[in-house]
């Protein structure tokens, strides 16, 4: 059962090396796993650092490094690794695992995913339980974004959330395998035949929302997606992009986040639906900001989020642009929050 693991690095060579170290015991024990690491034009010596470490640790039999000439984002970086692997004929893998560089695989994480997929041939995509180093679970399986989920995400009112509980993007976690709409790209296993049916990832997304888009395309092609908590992956949230790092300063959302969100709704539901989703979120979020002030609640939102959202949506033009992060997907393609 051949497995190909794709890791996209951007200026995080030490995190990527820690990820590779965590994979080594299972890779060597199985003997049917190959890992590809793409460096997304880091220009900070990452490619040289990774190449030297791969040689020094004797990993070249199972790890290959692909320096890319341009940073075109998460989807493009993964596609650069996946395309030649899937085109390898008799040597092509049966499964491909998209894995963030800021992850650490717990013992048996790969095997648990592969065992589940072998036992359930109708399942096209499976995601791991993603957690903190201390084992605290993170949300890593979700429902598809909708007008109702956008309203709930913006408004954050308990009564409304209870009424819309079937539409909440990140429902309460369950500690058993179960079907999900989509799973986070931090640790997402894909059956190779899914790529044959729907193609590789959409490179129109730079970062965020691409895994939700991919899982929706797979659903429409007849493939189901499952969450497999027996496979456990530590995710060091936001440490490879800084945008969602809970320990770091609050940062403004970069332009590519708004572009990805817009692309997801227009591509999958049409322009009219995208407008409705925008109005639902903006109205809900504006009310939340008023209520937050009146009730003295802490401000945990990205700075100037509503202003940036409205500027991008109503008057497209230059917005604050964070330094491009070109590694794996960070957390998930979340709605504004």
Q: Short summary of the structure?
A:
The chain has 337 residues and is of the alpha/beta class. Helices cover 40% and strands 18% of the residues. Strands 1, 2, 3, 4, 5, 6, 7, 9, 11 and 12 form a ten-stranded mixed beta sheet that branches.
CATH topology of one domain: Spore Coat Polysaccharide Biosynthesis Protein SpsA, Chain A
Roughly what is the average pLDDT, rounded to an integer?
92
Shape-level CATH architecture of one domain: Alpha-Beta Complex
Describe the global form.
Answer: globular
Describe the overall structure.
By secondary structure, this protein is an alpha/beta fold. It has a domain at 3-145 and 170-235: Spore Coat Polysaccharide Biosynthesis Protein SpsA, Chain A (Alpha-Beta Complex). The protein is built from 11 helices and 12 strands. It has helices spanning 13-30, 46-56, 74-86, 109-119, 147-155, 158-163, 192-198, 210-220, 255-269, 271-295, 305-314, and strands spanning 3-9, 33-39, 63-67, 95-99, 103-105, 123-131, 137-138, 141-142, 178-180, 182-183, 187-191, 224-235. Strands 1, 2, 3, 4, 5, 6, 7, 9, 11 and 12 form a 10-stranded mixed sheet that branches. Strands 8-10 form a two-stranded antiparallel sheet. Strand 6 and strand 7 form a beta hairpin. The protein is globular, with a radius of gyration of 20 Å. The relative contact order is 0.17.
